[in-house]
Design a protein that fits this description.
Elements (H helix, E strand, L loop, with lengths): L1 H9 L3 H12 L11 H13 L3 E3 L2 E5 L2 E6 L2 E4 L2 E8 L7 H12 L6 E6 L5 H9 L5 E5 H10 L2 H15 L12
Parallel strand pairs: 5-6, 6-7
Antiparallel strand pairs: 1-4, 2-3, 4-5
Helix pairs in contact: 1-3, 2-3, 6-7
Length: 180
Amino acid sequence: MARNYVADIQGKNSAQLLNMLQAISNGTPIRGWPPGIAFEHIVIRAFEIEGATVQWPFAVRQGSKIIEQIDGTVYFDGLACLVESKDYREPINIEPIAKLKNQLSRRPVGTLGLVFARQGYTDPAKILVRMMQPLNILLWEYEELELSLSTGTMCRALTTKFKFAVELGAPDYNVRIGLR
């Protein structure tokens, strides 16, 4: 079933993805897509359009048991990233970030986590990410995704966010408005 979603989204260009993203933001269901699944696939496709190597959502198994659900991976400019996308109606709290941090602990050193949240983050979630060691999770606001998708700068936004994480220790640098 997931292959149908991948085939569908891979047939879409940036303008079509942006239309889907705006529909999601307005609370309009995307025909043929369960809630949340379209958002995950839009994020991955946005990177793929710009030439990043991607892996679509997948499960990690140990024997017959699923131990992890990964929303996708992005490889670009020497960066390797696990993606977590949250299409929630409220800002996300610490739980998805803590789960991603645990997943990163089982990956090679240097793997980044990218969290995309349609409604942003609670203050405790932002504080948690700023205090985590090592700093290996970057937070993306909806508006950053929308801007980067509309201007074809997803990969550039990723490298900019990484630069500010390295230089300033800022995991939540906003490519639209800079530091807050």
